[in-house]
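Write out structure tokens for Transcription initiation factor IIB family protein.
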Amino acid sequence: MATRDIYTDGFDESAGKTIAATECPECDGDLRTEGGEISCTECGLIVNEYHLDHAAAPLDFPEGPDRERTGAPLTAARHDRGLSTEIGFRVDGKGNRLSSERRTHLGRLRREHTRAKWRSKAERNLGHGCTEIARLVSALDLDRSVREQASVLFRSAQSEDLLRGRSIEGFAAASVYAVCRCTDVVRTLGEVVEGARCSKSAVTNAYRVLNAELDLPAPPQRPREFVAGQVSAIGVPPEIERSAVEVAEAAWEDGVSIGVHPAGFAAACVEVACREQEVKLVQQDLAEAASVSPVTVRTHRDTIEGQREGER
């Protein structure tokens, strides 16, 4: 059988590794290809990059000889770490509709599965707490990582027997607030309480217990962290944000803002910056953005202006 070139009357998909250019568009230097990436030998400019890697290394499972892997990864956001079984309703795994007899049978299985879902009351409380954390994280528009860390913190509180006689919803909200305090996420206690299904005293008490018993690494909140959100909420120019941050930092260095409500003090900094640049605002709107009363904003504003007058 005679051999022939397969490309004489056919075609092959482009590999994307070559381009028509021979010189660098920036410095006219020579081009070189290395690992599917075309770059200049003189200035290092990447002219073209091959995104598909056909020589990827196989997956390695060092934990044992069984190399099979199925399902989603384990997560701490669910009480069973994502290993539970869910029974469907009207269709099977391939999308085909089930008969009425089969749906009735699955309904009975689903009922018994729900009854046997919790092995103990502690696991049931853990499931309720993880569900409440997921709802609160979604209501506050937080990242998935906050949900994971809050669920881990809730597990630690349950293992230390801190939930006995206390509100599960309170500890769920306190776990979310504690994660926000320990990370760079800016959320006030009022915002968390507004989305929680319990009273403010329950959340405050739960957070106090978490902070005392688990020794949380929660740094003090600085007023400058709340300036950006308040400026965006009341719709003032961006120049106000820079001035308010400077006022907040100066007050922090002088020790004026230590021990006060950080969001309320940040609102006062925003008002001082607006008054300096003659920008009009409604103090009630600013107080609502900070979740404080207008009296709090006026009190901190007078403190800042008095401190600045004394420095002059």
